[in-house]
Amino acid sequence: MTANLSRRGFLKTAASATAVLYVGATADGVAVAAGNTDAMLNPFVKIGSDGQVIAMIKHFEKGQGPATGLSTLIAEELGVSMDQIGYEFAPSNPEVYNNLFFGPFQGTGGSTAMANSWMQYRTAGANAREMLIKAAAEAWGVDASGLDIQNGMVTGAGQSAPLGTFVEAAASFAPSETPRLRDPSEWKIIGNEATRRLDSPIKVNGQAQFGMDIHLPNQMVVMIKRTPQRGGLVAGFDDSAAKEVKGFIMAMPLPTNHGVAVYAENTWAAMQARAAIEVDWDMSGAEARSSAEIREGVMAALNTAPVYNVNKADQAAITSAVDASAKVLEKTFYFPLLAHAPMEPMNCTIEQTAEGDIVLHDGAQMPTGPHMAFQQIFNLPADKIHIKTLLAGGSFGRRATPEADYQVEAALAFVMTDRSRPVKLVWDREDDIRGGYYRPATGHKVRVGLDADGNIAAWEHQVAGQSIMKGTPFEAVAVRDGIDNSTVEGLADNPYAIPNMSVGLTDTEKATSVLWWRSVGHTHTAYVMEVMMDMAAQASGRDPLEFRLAYLSGDDADSQRKAGVLKLVAEKANWGNPAPGNVQGLAVHKSFGSYVAEVVEVSGTPEDGIQIEKIVAAIDCGIAVNPDIVRAQTEGAIGYGIGHAMREKITLDGGAVEQSNFPDYEPLRISDIKAIETHIVPSAEAPTGVGEPGTPPAAPALANAIARLDLRVAELPMVEQGVSFA
Amino acid sequence: MFSCQMSVGDVDGADVTTIEGLSPDGTHPLQKARVAEQVPQCGYCQSGHIMRAAALLSDNPNPTRDEIKEEMSQNLCRCGTYNRIFKAVERAASQA
Ligand code: FES
Q1: Which residues of A402-487 form beta strands (DSSP E)?
Q2: Looking at residue A32, what is its pLDDT?
Q3: Distance in angstroms (rounded) separating the CA atoms of residues A439 and A424
Q4: Of A73, A258, A611, B47, which is most buried by a Cβ count within 10 Å?
């Protein structure tokens, strides 16, 4: 049996099997139903009488590993090896497959895939095991307590048979509400260094199917002629030149007038035709500012009293305490707009079935978003809309917009046709970089007062930036008392025991469109916290590691775990003893429930070129279900943080994005980091986030290394602040 | 060769190997090394990286780290799998 079974392959086999056992699970992880009929349509695990085991994956796979990780939980509890289990992406159904941290909403984000599924998938697997064992015990006339399943064989009481043997009988049992979960001492796959990803083979032989690979019979390709300035509207257009393009079908303004949909026989024809179309734009409501103006707005907000008192501190008293300190460190920081720029630009395909159902083929990060939007657009009940989730070529947050932007765009383009032909919407890289969504531009102003002994006496912190959540459907849950936590997360709630801290916030006007970007607010809050801690250590003549540990001396878990990653990274990176000629920088941050510390070691000088020689990371993410995926994600998250800090930014000129593709939005390259390694803190705690927590400490650790070369970078990207890279 | 920078006419009469044809069953040393080193994350860039590495190894079966860096720096990976790309090329070279 291969590791990856297509749905068709499974059904075909299952049809030849005499029975299938389906086991589902509720939000509490309790199995809700089991059976051998289609009554159980949305299971978490399916087991055929031929022994095939399929895990249903409720999260989409953009490389962060849920297909492997959630299959691991089922395999471990059920008692099969990883080459005896396959996976399928679950259909869109928020009642069954919701993210337990998101409420009635199916979606992936916030590094929650494993954390929210941990008990649910284990319980489903354990229930399947218990039902099969009960069936075996009855068949053999023995006591169930002496039986177990290992490597797909039910074994005990002197007997042994493949688990498929008992599927038919097991399917008639009701599942238990409290199946016995395997004790960690029994685990063979969870935490096993040798467990390989299930999706690697298809990603190295060309078989992996991404949204961009979809090619339905008779499909049309649609590309959108977009406004150069966000918010511009189509006032008129001329497609006479496009009519000369072979393969051009038609052009029509989107019903929203945000662009002109260009329909063609293939992508090339759509590109050519789109280039030939002239649009008359109404820019009266469009973004018209330049990056300099956006920056001025943020800085102006930092120079007035903050609107929101985030941690309800006595701000006047803290300002006085800073003023009265023996030494005051003051710094203003600025972070530019950034694009996510996943390798696969946005795309999706829509078709209508003979029964009038709508099918969306999409690397869907938040299926509930387009599912709800499509009910309105197509005026159909939820069960007439189907979402087939495909692999996604990266996201970093981009594939999950509150308004389901590109799926809605495709749906609007589709409803303007007679629906006889599937419509594939294709964005190119330029669409993505110029017309997409951006990490908000944000500024911080911090004043830290040190006492005569070099200890922190008071910390006054002010943030100004564009709220991600306000004005979206997520505002109701994500904004409290006017405060969008995603702008200030990682400051007042930081595990450091900082005395007399005030955090203020002012929202600035939204520039173009903003969106969560890998690690969201932590991308800038960690930078500011960790650079200020480093400056404070420097100013008081103390070692940056020792200084940080002094503020993590509490015996609470938060302090201990944050101190734990610091100590581990210091040991592994040989902190304080860089190679001759090199300097080191340190940073640590908690995000998405996990703790990550990083040491960046560099050679060279800012003038002649910095080379990142080595990055060492330590992560505490609770139980590492797949340690090597944890390491891979941490490496990738670090690279993402470093690459953007080095040289990336999105700038606007008269409201139009100036960058367009990788030559002018240059990602991390293979030569930028010579070596990188990650160490995992052993833990018995439930798993927490892994996809994002590696990003926040990366840029400040690099900045703190460069600070040892007498350059303190408080504005990104670094290449514009006097840092050159080798 | 980048397929996106080559027109079909330019390869008229030539043999073209794509990722699908690198091996009949996914057992080319580079493919096995990528699975073993858990290189792919999203996977979208991987076909390009593998074909570039295959070209490198066919010209230079034992590249140094600098030679790997030089050759592979023509491809990008947004997921940041670079660290493992080095390891996979070295593993494949040692086993080819
Ligand atoms: S693996 Fe995602 S871009 Fe390389």
Answers
A1: 423-426, 438-439, 442-450, 456-465, 479-480, 483-484
A2: 54
A3: 27
A4: A73
A637·B81 Cβ contact <8 A: no
pLDDT at A4: 31
Chain A residues within 8 A of B47 when measuring between CB atoms = 206
User: Are A299 and A412 contacting, i.e. CB atoms less than 8 angstroms apart?
Assistant: no
Delineate the domains of chain A, giving CATH numbers in brackets: 7-205 (3.30.365.10), 212-284+346-426 (3.30.365.10), 291-338+438-720 (3.30.365.10)
**Which chain A residues contact residue B73 at CB under 8 A?**
669-671
pLDDT for the residue A518: 97
Query: What is the percentage of chain A residues whose pLDDT exceeds 70?
Result: 95
Cβ–ligand 1 contact at B6 (below 6 Å) = no
* Strand pairing category for A45-48 and A53-57: antiparallel
Domains of chain B, by residue range, sit at 22-95
First to last CA, chain B: 22
- Residues of B within 8 A of A343 (CB-CB) are 42, 44-45, 76-79
Determine the distance separating the centroid of ligand 1 and the alpha carbon of A636, expressed in angstroms.
Answer: 9
Q: pLDDT tens digits, residue range A367-402?
A: 999 999 999 999 999 999 999 999 999 999 999 999
Q: Which residue is associated with the tokens 């073993």?
A: B36
Beta bridge partners of A614: A601
Please tell me the residue having the least CA distance from ligand 1 atom 4: B77
Ligand 1 pocket, residue A342 CB under 6 Å:
no
Are B82 and A669 in contact (CB < 8 Å)?
A: yes
Distance A296 CA to ligand 1 centre (A): 36
Cβ B23–A205 below 8 Å, yes or no? yes
Fold of B22-95: DNA polymerase; domain 1 (1.10.150)
Please say whether the beta carbons of A366 and A108 come within 8 A.
yes
